[in-house]
Amino acid sequence: MASLFQAAIVQANSGTDLDEDQTSDLIDAMLRGEADERDVANLLLALKEKGESVSELVGASRAMRRHMTRIPHSHQVLLDTCGTGGSGSGTFNISTAVAIVAAAAGVAVAKHGNRRATSLTGSADVLEVLGVPIESDAESVAQRLDRDGICFCFAAKLHPAMRHVIGVRRQLGVKTLFNLLGPLCNPAGATHQLLGTSTLETQTMVAAAIGALGTTRSFVVHGADGQDEVSLDGSTHVIDVRASTSDTYQWTAADFGLQPATRDALYAADPNKSAEIIRRIFAGESGPCRDAVLAGTAAALVLVGVASDIRDGVTKAAETIDSGAAKDKLASLVGH
């Protein structure tokens, strides 16, 4: 096993990408707890220095999917709004709010996420403050998805094999290949994804990977202001990935019929502040935070075919919030 890792480290250090099967075997060994921590650290650093490739991301995702605890369901259409994180934007949990509004609009949602790593507040952190049970086992998560049309897939709970690499990742203290795997390894097998990335380079790679891994349709988005969200500050770069094709285009605030909003207007210092913002939006408060959720939800509704275009999506998202349906959906997720 050590020789396989050492050969891969030499290969990566020479600037040559690993192929899918090779990467899959190496990640598989890591997640079984069969790899030496020093070899794991050296390989992750070598891949980072070289620059991770699509083949490596696909191979690693396939291995991680084999080890995750799956959530069974019967939904033909299932949405996830999990992004890569790492933008450092400090915004409230927009994609989490979008997931709840989309579910309230009738879309089945399996929101994948974790506690904060590179952000001020992760999806698990804000949902916990909102009162949502995040430590549920797979059976309970599946029951919630069937009953409420939305569930939270807590990465720390449903990817138990990650315990074998968490120590190394903490020691390294830098982003590695594993930071890109979360959105590609939804335990419920989401058919549609609104997936934000923090850089254009990551966007291109993740879009290619999700196409190779298989998706009904996904929007991989990156805000020109650095947000890993649909952004209302400048333009949002979109890669529209389908089963065998992809298209690229851009959205601006004007396309949504909304006012521009800067990142500063969306700032949340911690999970408590993020939860407060979400509660206020669902209670009917207007402003840039609501508009950010409307834009993200509009994209999600277009993605799954509930809205004909993003203007229609904004209208449907606004109606969902104003009717109280989003607030009620959060209450059902909490269990009250």
TrEMBL record:
Q: Name one GO molecular function term.
A: magnesium ion binding
Which annotated residues bind anthranilate 1? G83, N114
Q: In which pathway does it act?
A: Amino-acid biosynthesis; L-tryptophan biosynthesis; L-tryptophan from chorismate: step 2/5
Glycosyl transferase family domain ranges (all copies): 77-326
Q: Which Pfam families match?
A: Glycos_trans_3N, Glycos_transf_3
Residues holding anthranilate 2: R169
Provide GO CC annotations from the record.
cytosol
Q: Where is the Glycosyl transferase family 3 N-terminal domain?
A: 13-68
Report the co-factor binding details. Binds 2 magnesium ions per monomer.
Q: Does the keyword Metal-binding apply?
A: yes
- Annotated binding of 5-phospho-alpha-D-ribose 1-diphosphate, by residue: 83, 86-87, 91, 93-96, 111-119, 123
The enzyme class is transferase
| Keyword terms | Amino-acid biosynthesis, Aromatic amino acid biosynthesis, Glycosyltransferase, Magnesium, Metal-binding, Transferase, Tryptophan biosynthesis
Reactions mediated catalytically: N-(5-phospho-beta-D-ribosyl)anthranilate + diphosphate = 5-phospho-alpha-D-ribose 1-diphosphate + anthranilate
Q: Which domain of life does the protein's organism represent? A: Bacteria
Q: What is its EC number?
A: 2.4.2.18
> Which cofactors are named for this entry?
Mg(2+)
Q: Name one GO biological process term.
A: L-tryptophan biosynthetic process
**Binding residues for Mg(2+) 1, per the UniProt record?**
S95, E229
| Functional summary from the UniProt entry | Catalyzes the transfer of the phosphoribosyl group of 5-phosphorylribose-1-pyrophosphate (PRPP) to anthranilate to yield N-(5'-phosphoribosyl)-anthranilate (PRA).
**HAMAP family given in the database record:** TrpD
Family of this protein: Belongs to the anthranilate phosphoribosyltransferase family.
What is the official name of this protein in its record? Answer: Anthranilate phosphoribosyltransferase
- Source organism per entry reads Rhodopirellula maiorica SM1
Q: Which gene encodes it?
A: trpD
